Amino acid sequence: QVQLVESGGGLVQAGGSLRLSCAASGSIGSINAMGWYRQAPGKQRELVAIIASDGITNYADAVKGRFTISRDVPKNMVYLQMNSLKSEDTAVYYCNFRGRLRSRYEVWGQGTQVTVSS
Would you say residue 112 has pLDDT above 90? Predict the structure, then answer.
């Protein structure tokens, strides 16, 4: 069973930066993709950024040029560097892993709150 633990959320002023981290533990197997999603109050969860096993990244249009996803494969960790934060970035951010051990799996972290004050 795979578990994800996020860290790095908090309160920041608009224009500031935060770095989120997500650590995976357990029987991970091979990872197909690591990603970050977010959910603001009253809204659906949405993709923020994803990095595939080949290193190709994809970003939501709203964060392109401001956020950067990266990973440390040996440590089974994924990061989200968030710069030039805006009030509309306020949300709970969730880490997501998709992998395969004996079968495909998808796991979510517990979420970390990011609040950007204007």
Answer: yes
